[in-house]
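Chapter summary example.
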Amino acid sequence: MQLINIGYGNMISSSRIIAVVSPEAAPVKRMVQNARDNGMLIDASCGRKTKAVIITDSDHVVLSAVMPETVAHRVNDTDNNEGESTNEG
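The structure predicted for these 89 residues follows.
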């Protein structure tokens, strides 16, 4: 299991991420509100402005104060490092 930093010391399993989206669109705002109502929202923004909404394969919605591009870059770096580690030794 590879964990990635989603800001301010919060980590999430990269293999569980389905999508990373901007919180500005109305459908995403509805998704966040529905997750909050259903107890499926994880607020990892530490009181800061939400810049990314992460959707997981367990239908949890995670709020992050890190830009979506940054989260995606960290996921890609984790995937690349995982592939390199299997080629070693």
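To summarize the output: The chain has a mean pLDDT of 92.
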